[in-house]
Amino acid sequence: MEKLTSEQIDVALKELPGWSYENGSIKKTYATQHYPATMAFVAAIGGFCQRRNHHPDYVLMKYREVEVSFSTHSVGGITQNDIDISKDIDKIPV
């Protein structure tokens, strides 16, 4: 996969509400209803990423909030794979 330019990232993020580009990664914070929903969402992200073999830089879990960050380490930036997995994670019920 090729590393996206900053212009390509900006265009892609216009289609990803809530996602932002910071320090070489794209990230988003999701609000959840309660702790069990937070745990279920984190588990769903983990399972989904494992099946896709593309894992987040980090998943930060709070009581009613989950922050997730992606980049592609092998290219040192954002690829289409990061954009695609972000779109798919947005489809997971929170």
Radius of gyration from CA coordinates: 13 Å
Largest sheet: 4 strands, antiparallel
Distance between the termini: 29 Å
Number of helices: 3
CATH superfamily: Transcriptional coactivator/pterin dehydratase
Strand content: 15-25%
Q: Which class of secondary structure composition applies to the elements?
A: alpha+beta
If you average the pLDDT, what whole number results? 96
Work out the number of β strands: 4
Query: Which stretches of 5+ consecutive residues score pLDDT under 50?
Result: none
Helix/strand order:
HEEHEEH
Indicate the CATH architecture: 2-Layer Sandwich
- Taken from the alpha-carbon principal axes, the silhouette is globular
The main sheet orders its strands as 1-2-4-3
Helix % is: 25-40%
Question: What name does the CATH topology carry?
Answer: Gyrase A, domain 2
Q: Briefly, what CATH class?
A: Alpha Beta
Written description of the protein model:
The chain has one domain (6-89): Transcriptional coactivator/pterin dehydratase (Gyrase A, domain 2, 2-Layer Sandwich), CATH 3.30.1360.20. With 94 residues, it is α+β, with helices and mostly antiparallel strands. A 4-stranded antiparallel beta sheet has the order 1-2-4-3. The N and C termini lie far apart (29 Å). It has helices spanning 6-13, 35-52, 80-89; strands spanning 20-22, 25-31, 58-62, 65-70. The model has no long low-confidence stretch (mean pLDDT 96). Helix content is 38%, strand content 22%.
